[in-house]
Amino acid sequence: MKIALAQNNYHIGNFEYNTEKIINRIQRAKEQGADLVVFSELSVCGYPSGDFLEFTDYINQCYASLDKIKAHCSGIAAIVGAPDRNVSPKGKPLYNAAFFLENQEIKQVYRKGLLPNYDIFDEYRYFEPATEFSILEFKGKKIALTICEDLWNLNDNPLYTGNPMETLARQGASLMINIAASPFAWNHGNERKKMLSENSRTYHLPMIYVNQVGAQTELVFDGGSMVFNQNGQIVEEMNYFEEDFLITDLELIGRKSGYTPAYQEENPDKIHDIYEAVKLGIKDYFSKMGFSKAILGLSGGIDSAVTMAIAADALGAENVLGVLMPSAFSSDHSVNDARELAENLNCPYKIIPIKETTELFEKSLAPWFKGLEFDVTEENIQARARAVYLMALSNKFGYVLMNTSNKSEAAVGYGTLYGDMCGGLSVLGDVYKTDVFALARYINRNKEIIPVNSILKPPSAELRPNQKDSDSLPEYDILDKILYQYIELRKGAKEIIAMGFDSALTQRTLKLVNTSEYKRHQTAPVIRVSSKAFGMGRKMPIVAKYPG
Amino acid sequence: MKIALAQNNYHIGNFEYNTEKIINRIQRAKEQGADLVVFSELSVCGYPSGDFLEFTDYINQCYASLDKIKAHCSGIAAIVGAPDRNVSPKGKPLYNAAFFLENQEIKQVYRKGLLPNYDIFDEYRYFEPATEFSILEFKGKKIALTICEDLWNLNDNPLYTGNPMETLARQGASLMINIAASPFAWNHGNERKKMLSENSRTYHLPMIYVNQVGAQTELVFDGGSMVFNQNGQIVEEMNYFEEDFLITDLELIGRKSGYTPAYQEENPDKIHDIYEAVKLGIKDYFSKMGFSKAILGLSGGIDSAVTMAIAADALGAENVLGVLMPSAFSSDHSVNDARELAENLNCPYKIIPIKETTELFEKSLAPWFKGLEFDVTEENIQARARAVYLMALSNKFGYVLMNTSNKSEAAVGYGTLYGDMCGGLSVLGDVYKTDVFALARYINRNKEIIPVNSILKPPSAELRPNQKDSDSLPEYDILDKILYQYIELRKGAKEIIAMGFDSALTQRTLKLVNTSEYKRHQTAPVIRVSSKAFGMGRKMPIVAKYPG
After folding, report:
1. What is the pTM of this model?
2. Would residue A148 show up in a list of annotated catalytic residues for this protein?
């Protein structure tokens, strides 16, 4: 039996586009002699559809898509992910389902049993978990068809009380198929491979795994669909960060040898992977929103430099406009570094000095400010004046403003709300400053694109004379480690201090994170590259008093 | 038996404050001869605690609070809400629990079975649902102790497959106690009463219901704890929107007659209730964040007028600063209306003309803008220049900026991001424009506080000559009805058009709502007063193409 794996990039709610793409792949699979073609989780509507799933009309359109798709399933069968109405009088109104289409009919519907409801997942919001599981019989094969999380209750994963695959194994499964929408995180790929491999080994079955690819605002689905032999070895691995299509011959899988994913504490390709994820995040945000041009403020610093370099790669250099807006406190070398960056990348740039503008704001406020010291107010006026210029250019010419904040500064609130925290998309908001440096070196791996000076000079917001980030913040190599323990690993102050970090510094850092929640609440969606990004996957009360 | 109902306002994560308050009420109840004192759901940490519940240290602090509290439970018993660790190797790590404290010990723990996971609720994110339920025996009473949603599976509510109260009734319950954290919505109070009354009648049992009170950022818990006799009549009803304390004598409940809440389609007190909810929302945001002074831009229009009036009531008139920032397009009457409002309220105000500022921005941009028409860009520059002034005053003097956007304009994206959409708290973001008018009339019910001219003149953003909202938007009485069908009732275009609304207008409105999701993503938390507010309870994809 030949099975096609269709790794597609869907557009949420764009039924016409998704349906056409699915039908196209069915045709291709048929032409290439496949018996079955497999699509990813909730492929007809795209994952995650959010509260659109609560609209009757949205679900109607999902069924209408299935109707169009099934008409193309003659001489070939297809497994397509879609929501399915729960017709029983009890429980949530939908199931997260896989539809088996054959002979132009919906032959069977398979429903997800384990619903992830943590981090960025909230499937219990919409779906009733299935409690009964049965085998799909097709051309003499007994297929255990599961949906993403269904396979994640192996070993001692404590999240769930049931295990759908146990039930299916008892029914004599001869092949596993899992359809997924599993988002990228730099340390997740290996975990995913290991879990799938262990399933295959545990049940001694070959497995077809089809993942979604493409970015949906914050979430980047990285693809990497796979075929495992019955020993849990990966014998086929599809491309990452792009669409792909593959036909595998089931009879040959058993004879192929591959590799068994091993435990890895570190991802040696971390920076490469983050780069690709962020690039795809930008690309899909623009293409799916119908925009083509980006704008950003260039400070001469490393965050805006890395953002511009990746955006230029994603959108084309000619579509990324840098705006240099020196203030009274900007150093000459900053302006030169920014200009050099734009020139290295072949990106257009403009220079708009803001000194006169900030002076006018200060003059207008002077009646109330007189006698008061220069403080964060005047710093913020500079950042906000820049935002007004950037947004004016954005409004006039249809640019989308890229936010250039990194995760370290977003964490501790080191940024101006409605100033440098503006932007439609946060490119580096899930990348710690130390990793921003690593990205810069990665971008420069073949030649100097980001001026070395931007990498080597001490980070500074340049909002007052001779300012350095380290005046107000700990050094980033320490700060980032504390933040990682608190944000990604959810350790409290006591636990972090017990690891050897300075007590006062740790407590100050955690307090800064908690008290700047109100700022992060108002910022752009952050392209998620870690296991815990700011945004939809981290729900913290704003009004709270907990020092962590 | 005498039972005390302690309706308290908790501060999330502020264990010291919450514990002290709980102990104080235990003492008071004891002094007044109560046998048992009942606190609301998750009272030790406050509801909702969000992802703080994922921190080991946070849960440790909950247990430590219980230890302190139980020491005061001699001669009196207490029911206190707190998270409880799931010690079994399977399932989510916590239960949402009620601790029965007696003789300075934790005697029993009761766990929530029905976990709400819709709208603003996401309890499956943290909690494992209980599947076993048993009676609490105390002084000869068999108490069916349940937690909030546990009672919401009566009749044909399709959300859940189980019903804890059925189990408890079979065990011979003689009294029901329900501890809750049920947030306000203008049409929810009656629904809540009816559901509780039906439970009491169905099982023919008296019921004690203790709700949380107080605002937690977006959510306003309205209190209104109640005592029902065994016929489902409300015999005691505690205050709304404030803390309260009541001792009820169980032996007398059966002899008291009260009223049975009836079905009501409309809430006749809707505007009063919204006013009180918003007022408490402001008050608690400030007090819990440690701020006392608010600032807002006064346009002379009705949104800023209503916001200022409620803020003055919540915080004291002297603590609310209005800033008038006329542009070249501001009419004289707008400035006069704004000034009159501030004077009527006895609020301080300042005037900062922005004409020179916007001209400077335009001059600086002229090299790129020359030959291009005045458009939304120049409109936005005005709104953003105002935001810079407001935030500068906020930064310098510690004011919190109040956002004055209403729900109608937030819905269709009629507002300037980083301009009039700025602010730490959205006061009217869940109030449709037609209800803002009703609030204005309510505020003026005894005397003219909001200048009548602000109420009567056609709404205008005054960002270009002779502009009116109705130039770009449908009349609010129609717009609001369409928005209500789409947002609150989640009807699609077809269903709304079938109700008689204009087809093109409906489709345009829904498209505006969907395409302005990116703006709402970046705005302040909205005080929730309806069953579907923008913010945490409405999760819509930004990158999507679904016209609704």
Report:
1. 0.97
2. yes
